[in-house]
Amino acid sequence: MLKRLLVDIAYYISTSKKYAKTKRFFYNLLENSNDKYKRMFDLFMIALIFASVIILIREVKLHVNDGLLFFNDYVISIIFLIEYLLRFWISSSVTEIIIKQSEHDLMLGDEFRAAKAFKKILQAKLKYVFSIKAIVDLLAIIPFFHQLRLFILFRVFKLFRYAKSIQTFASVIAAKKFEFFTLFIFASIIVFVSSVLIYVMEANNPASAVNTFFEAIYWSIVTISTVGYGDITPVTEAGRIVSMFVIIAGIAVFSFTTSLVVTAFTEKLDEIKDIKLIDDIENMKNFYLICGYEDISKEVSKKLIQNNKVVILEEDQEKASQAKKDGFFVLNYAPGSIESYKKLKINIQEQVKAILCLSHSDVENVYTALTIRSFNKDVFILSILKNRVNTNKLFFAGVNELLYEKELTGMIAKGFVGQPVAFELIHALRSSYNGVDMQEIFVNERILDSFTTVGSLKCKKYRILLLGIFKKNEEEFCFNPSESIALELGDYLLTIGNTQFIKEFSNSLYKKGD
Amino acid sequence: MRETTALVFGYNDYTFEIVKNISLYYENIQIFKLDEDDKVIQNSKYKISQFDLSDNWDDLKSGVDIEECVAFCVLEDMAENIFLTISLRDAFKDLKIVALAKDKESEEKLLLAGASRVLPTMQTTANIIVEMLEKPIVSKVLHNILYEKSDLKIAQIRIDNSEKFNKEYPVDIDWGKEYGVIVLSVLREDMGIEFIYSSKAKHHQIKEGDIFVVVGYEHDIKEFEKLIGGQI
Asked: Quick check: helix, strand or coil at residue A231?
């Protein structure tokens, strides 16, 4: 009966939308680095930690008023306690464990084994409680009275949770934990042996400063670390011989430590850079995602970067390095792998303007397009086509626009032989050669407030040509529109002229709306 | 003099696309396949001959009148294409050579090698991709005009009857209202091609021999031609 009630409660809680929403909110706040409130929360906690430290430092020599002490000892501690309990709550799902166990037992035809479920719950919660982060959190709650002054260290250690760079440093060091452990054992043995030796050699000598074993250990550590305060020095010959060995061992330990840290950072540098890059990309809006960095994509990226943000995915390390050298945001990820997009942590629909599949292989472009379509149906995908026979395959994979370079070459050849001057002019317009450009201006409400007909635009005054209007409603291009033609919301004006004059013309349309 | 024969050097996908697009302009098209090229020759309505990169062009000289030819160098290997261009230029000083360039570096080398015109495939593809993304309407309209996929056309018209304009300046005439066409630019021997609103074009009166680049509907362009001269 009690077991049944327990399972019912577990189901009730796990299906409660309010409970799920609340838990998700706290999970995002405490653990999800993409959550908009997490940054604020982290800053708040960092401020509390610093406030705590400042109060303690002030308290050493000066009087701190009771209000501040109360704030420090109780308010901050209570906030830390609440945080600890929330983390304890979200670390694992009790209801989920109960339900899983119940379903497992039901499937096997057994009675629900509540004891086993409790054991699993206990294991999950204890795993959290004994994690280093949780221990630091717990110790940081303790108000630090004079007797417990050292506990402030745990409040400072809490910074690890909130400062990303400290976490990165910790992860770099953690990557070399075996080497650091070996070094620690080596240093410990040296310290222990030298402490014993120096104690045996010096402790009975009245001229020596080494009187206790603690002083011997202190001397060993100060010497092995190459600090050498000089407050304790060996006076016997045997003691000095021990010192020489400790000094040499100290140099070895010191250089080994330095090289370990440097190697760890060098090895992790690319990963650290990628993490930073992913964070930057996460905050980007309206950028182009280019898959592949080869000849055409190099040119396209260079042109797009002038007015846009561009992110490149390139699987080949050499090409990715080249793209980095060229100054782009590059990730050495495979564009055809779904994992790459998961690592990117972006909302493709909201953040990406278009995805360009510019690899020189139709196979790779089909694969990339299919990968993208498997998780997003709407983002605009443009691809190049290398072999005409693959046209349908690329469209079938979900590409919106295809560009066949060889067909384009044929058309250019036709233009060159048929109408060379006209063709050259259009080519010049396309590449803004000689400063003359062709631009489209979107007709919005602001423009319509002041300009209702083509005649009112006064294009001639700005020395630009109005080639025509793309009428949104009729979905057709109205060439050489007469002055009486009315402008409508959503139309596009196609203008040709000097880039600067087009800009002035465009600005004048908006200014008049003031 | 208008060339009547197109000599296409190279047998690949570029060849097929170029031949398809230029067939209207030439009476005779000859395709030359590089000896080393292992691509299988398919049924073609054009004559396909073999050639190598040696300097022996005697067969070519005996087969066609070089003065009436345009050569298209479309070998996929850029080093070979440049070598072919330089070889043709060395043998035929006045031959019009149109060469395929896959990148900017090859484009410059081909011009140095003596190509009259270069087809910059990569640059153009990149420009068009950017245009499709950044200016989709412009891209669509230009594409339709250039590749005759709409009633709108672009044409070069030479002024044979300048008296009609009575020493007027091109910028002072409302071409759209009076003739139904838009004059984009003017080409003159003394100033090259200039956009109609450029300061150079603004200060030049319309003269016989000027070439106008106009956009308009086919019948309007024809009417305009009749009035002022002829289409080139």
From this structure: coil
Q: How is residue B73 written in tokens? A: 């160098």
DSSP A131: S
Kindly tell me the sign of the dihedral angle through the C-alpha atoms of A489, A495, A499, A500: negative
3-state DSSP assignment of residue B142? helix
Question: Which residue from B125, B13, B9 is spatially nearest to A387, judged by alpha carbons?
Answer: B13
A17-21 CB contacts, 8 Å cutoff, 24+ apart? none
**Which residues does B108 contact at the CB level (< 8 Å), separation at least 6?**
none
Helices and strands in chain B, H and E counts = 9, 11
Q: What is the 3-state secondary structure (H, E, C) of A173-194?
A: HHCCHHHHHHHHHHHHHHHHHH
The token duo for B33 is 């396949």
In this predicted model, what pLDDT tens digit does every residue of B31-88 receive, in sequence order? 888 876 666 666 667 778 888 877 678 777 777 788 888 899 999 899 999 999 999 9
Coil, strand or helix at A382: strand
The values of phi and psi at residue A79, to 5°, are -60, -45
User: What is the pairing mode between strands A465-471 and A492-498?
Assistant: antiparallel
Q: Give the chain A residue whose CA is nearest to the CA of B147.
A: A411
Cα–Cα dist B222/B142, whole Å: 20
Distance (Å) from the alpha carbon of A430 to chain B's nearest alpha carbon: 7
Q: What three-state secondary structure class fits A310?
A: strand
| DSSP-assigned states of every residue in B41-69 | PPP-SSEEEEE-SSS--HHHHHHS-GGGE
Model ipTM value:
0.81
Beta-carbon count within 10 A of A188 CB:
10
What's the CA gap between A26 and A90, in Å, rounded? 8
What's the rounded Cα separation, in Å, for the pair A138 and A129?
9
Whether residues A425 and B182 touch (CB distance < 8 A) is answered with no
Give the DSSP letter of residue A292: -
Q: Which residue spans within B12-144 are E strands per DSSP? A: 28-34, 47-51, 69-73, 96-101, 117-120
Least confident of A53-57, A235-239, B85-89: A53-57
To the nearest whole angstrom, how far is the Cα of A363 from the nearest Cα of chain B? 18
Tell which wins on pLDDT, A279 or A189.
A189
Arithmetic mean of pLDDT, B127-143:
85
User: B225: pLDDT confidence band, cut at 50, 70 and 90?
Assistant: confident
| Interchain CB distance below 8 Å, B119 and A409 | yes
Q: Which of B130, B135, B193 sits opposite A440 (nearest CB)?
A: B135
- B contact residues 89-128, partner A, Cβ 8 Å cutoff: 98, 100, 102-103, 117, 119, 121-128
> Strand A401-404 and strand A381-385: pairing?
parallel
Chain B's closest residue to A308, CA to CA, is B134
Residue from B30, B25, B36 nearest B3 by CA: B25
Q: Within 10 A of A267 (CB to CB), how many other CB atoms are there?
A: 13
Q: Do B146 and A353 touch (CB under 8 A)?
A: no
Confidence (pTM) = 0.69
d(CA A228, CA A247): 9
Mean pLDDT calculated for residue range A140-149: 66
The answer to whether the Cβ–Cβ distance between B195 and A356 falls below 8 Å is: no
Q: Give the pLDDT of residue B2.
A: 63
Residue A494 phi/psi, 5-degree rounding, is -100, 110
Asked if B44 has any chain A CB less than 8 Å from its own CB, the reply is no
A137 CB-near residues (< 8 Å, 6+ apart): A80, A83, A84, A87, A158, A161
Placement of tokens 């540098």 in the chain: A269
Q: What is the pLDDT of residue A348?
A: 87
Q: Which two tokens stand for residue A126?
A: 């204890």
Q: Which two tokens stand for residue B138?
A: 């412009």
CB B211 within 8 A of CB B160: no
Residues of B in contact with A423 (CB under 8 A): 146
Q: Provide φ and ψ at A91, rounded to 5°.
A: -65, -30
